């Protein structure tokens, strides 16, 4: 601001008082600008102008397309229909588990049968159907069939069990549940608590004795359903755009694997002639930990697309496996400030222009590191971060803009936590990502940490409040605080639970066995800390900041510490020797 005022002052003085010609005025302003540090702007301009123009054109192209799709009501099923017309006999999906190939015509027929069957069972546009199954071609067909009818698909994480699974199904307000036969045991565990009006359908091999009594076998029912395109729904839905979306919208062939295999990954890429792979950060580390094999040099993969690739292994990953482009991105289904790394800048999850930042209204704003509350200036507006300063990523909400709008959640309370006012200017609203990023001088953005009531571990989001509730119930309603701690050489944060135990006694073997039934593997705390009491804030929230800083170092923490031994399947004492092994990456977590 001071530099701008100085430039204006020189301009007025040179022209009005000295009455210099415009060429001399311009030269004077340039000298003053460069002399006051303005050369940084010129450096940034020449280093980023090509990137910014390309990014701006991509943004403009996407915005024009989305506006046209909305205006013409071209939903995903409508766009898929045009893809089928272009490539009816091209392979759309390959399921590695059985080497099953589906053409676009077959995927279209299957999804239409799904839509007509659900319509015959009374589901209409706007209803919800839950989908609970492992990866396979049918998963895509079921989701697409629901979209053709305008039915929202609630995609349930296959790791969930018992209370967590029941909570998700109940919250989704689904009228029907379609589950894979491999998920039958999990459904049987909660069938007594399910809504009696919830229709149950099992896909896959059929054994009536292994499913709830009210369950119907879906496969023969779909065979009898008509395969004509159902009537166009009142509303349409988007989703699954990163991976499967490229198949549905652009006619690419997608290879689906039941589960990730580090030892077979490159062999699969060679076998199916893959040119693009999708990753989450942990997968890249698993691949690097594998011994070298011939397939690494035989594949045709030119791009790796995903998120969570750590800066420390980025170069090793791209050079060892000969991948010319790593397209890291940042985003979420409800997020209005997605980012993309178009030029393989090592470690960056995207960028925002330093020259024309108003084109894409996102910002890093200062927050209180302990409470994560937004820090505001005297005018009540959030304070933007400078390059190198960590801050929370926010995006201005503009409901008329399809790329800037925020549609929210079913839970209004969750919406309130994600929206802040007076962020960019007075009277505006912005979406709060809850994630801390850092921007460098050129505008590249780097992911730093996840804040709030979640942390990420093994590629999954862990809800601290959910885990706290489960642990407290298993420990006779003891106070429990759950938080994430950093472990060298791993992606995300490992779960740690501080348990209020005045006596210090706890049957950890029974506790570990109970956790196996109650929580998915990624949500089980890796570390335990038993302490006399947990301190709370004035609003009765646990004070986790100090607990998080102290971590699991036995030299710092004097309370009893334990860690989950993966080989023994139970919690064992965490002494200095075990701590050293964990720090060195010698202990499997």
UniProtKB/TrEMBL annotation:
Residue span(s) of domain AMP-dependent synthetase/ligase: 81-191, 242-340
AMP-binding enzyme C-terminal domain mapped to chain residues: 466-541
Superkingdom classification of source: Eukaryota
Keyword annotations from UniProtKB, A to Z: Fatty acid metabolism, Ligase, Lipid metabolism, Lipid transport, Transport
Cross-referenced SUPFAM superfamilies: Acetyl-CoA synthetase-like
Similarity section: Belongs to the ATP-dependent AMP-binding enzyme family.
GO biological process, one term: medium-chain fatty acid transport
GO molecular function, one term: oleoyl-CoA ligase activity
Catalytic activity: a very long-chain fatty acid + ATP + CoA = a very long-chain fatty acyl-CoA + AMP + diphosphate; tetracosanoate + ATP + CoA = tetracosanoyl-CoA + AMP + diphosphate
Secretion signal span: none
InterPro entries, A to Z: AMP-bd_C, AMP-bd_C_sf, AMP-dep_synth/lig_dom, ANL_N_sf, Lipocalin_CS
UniProt name for this protein: long-chain-fatty-acid--CoA ligase
GO annotation, cellular component aspect: endoplasmic reticulum membrane; plasma membrane
Enzyme Commission (EC) number: 6.2.1.3
UniProt entry tagged with the keyword Transport: yes
Species this chain originates from: Carlito syrichta (Philippine tarsier)
Enzyme class label: ligase
């Amino acid at each position: 601001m001071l530099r701008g005022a100085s430039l204006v002052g020189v301009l007025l003085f040179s022209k009005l008082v000295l009455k210099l010609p415009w060429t001399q005025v311009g030269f004077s302003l340039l000298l003053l600008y460069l002399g006051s540090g303005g050369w940084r702007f010129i450096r940034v301009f020449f280093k980023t102008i090509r990137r910014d123009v390309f990014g701006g054109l991509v943004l403009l192209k996407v915005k024009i397309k989305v506006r046209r799709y909305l205006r013409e009501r071209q939903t995903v099923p409508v766009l898929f229909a045009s893809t089928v017309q272009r490539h009816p006999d091209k392979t759309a999906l390959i399921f590695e588990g059985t080497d099953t190939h589906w053409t676009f015509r077959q995927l279209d027929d299957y999804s239409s049968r799904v839509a007509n069957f659900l319509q015959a069972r009374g589901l209409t546009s706007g209803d919800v159907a839950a989908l609970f199954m492992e990866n396979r071609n049918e998963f895509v067909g079921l989701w697409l069939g629901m979209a053709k009818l305008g039915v929202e698909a609630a995609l349930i994480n296959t790791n969930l069990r018992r209370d967590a699974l029941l909570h998700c199904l109940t919250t989704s307000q689904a009228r029907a549940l379609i589950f894979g036969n491999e998920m039958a045991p999990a459904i049987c565990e909660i069938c007594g608590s399910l809504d009696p009006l919830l229709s149950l359908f099992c896909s896959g091999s059929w054994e009536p004795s292994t499913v709830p009594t009210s369950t119907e076998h879906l496969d023969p029912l779909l065979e009898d359903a008509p395969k004509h395109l159902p009537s166009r729904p009142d509303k349409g839905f988007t989703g699954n755009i990163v991976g499967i979306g490229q198949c549905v919208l652009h006619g690419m062939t997608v290879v689906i694997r039941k589960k990730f295999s580090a030892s077979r990954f490159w062999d699969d890429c060679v076998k199916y002639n893959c040119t693009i792979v999708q990753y989450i950060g942990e997968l890249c580390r698993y691949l690097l930990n594998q011994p070298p094999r011939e397939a690494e040099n035989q594949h045709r993969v030119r791009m790796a697309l995903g998120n969570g690739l750590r800066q420390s292994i980025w170069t090793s990953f791209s050079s060892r496996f000969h991948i010319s482009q790593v397209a890291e991105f940042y985003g979420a289904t409800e997020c209005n400030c997605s980012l993309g790394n178009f030029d393989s800048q090592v470690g960056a999850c995207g960028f925002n222009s330093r020259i024309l930042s108003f084109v894409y209204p996102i910002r890093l704003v200062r927050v209180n590191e302990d409470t994560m509350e937004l820090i505001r200036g005297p005018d009540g507006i959030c304070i933007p971060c400078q390059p190198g300063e960590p801050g929370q990523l926010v995006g201005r909400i503009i409901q008329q803009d399809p790329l800037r709008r925020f549609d929210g959640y079913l839970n209004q309370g969750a919406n309130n936590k994600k929206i802040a006012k007076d962020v960019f200017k007075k009277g505006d609203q912005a979406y709060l990502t809850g994630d801390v990023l850092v921007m460098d001088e050129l505008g590249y953005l780097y992911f730093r940490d996840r804040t709030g009531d979640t942390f990420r571990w093994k590629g999954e989001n862990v809800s601290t409040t959910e885990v706290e509730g489960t642990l407290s119930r298993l420990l006779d309603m003891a106070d429990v605080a759950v938080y994430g701690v950093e472990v060298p050489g791993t992606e995300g944060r490992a779960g740690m639970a501080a348990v209020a135990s005045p006596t210090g006694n706890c049957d950890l073997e029974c506790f570990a066995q109970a956790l196996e039934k109650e929580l998915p593997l990624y949500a089980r705390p890796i570390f335990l800390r038993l302490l006399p009491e947990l301190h709370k804030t004035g609003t009765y929230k646990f004070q986790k900041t100090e607990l998080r800083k102290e971590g699991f170092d036995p030299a710092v923490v004097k309370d009893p510490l334990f860690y989950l031994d993966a080989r023994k399947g139970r919690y064992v004492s965490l002494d200095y020797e075990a701590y050293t092994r964990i720090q060195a990456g010698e202990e499997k977590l």
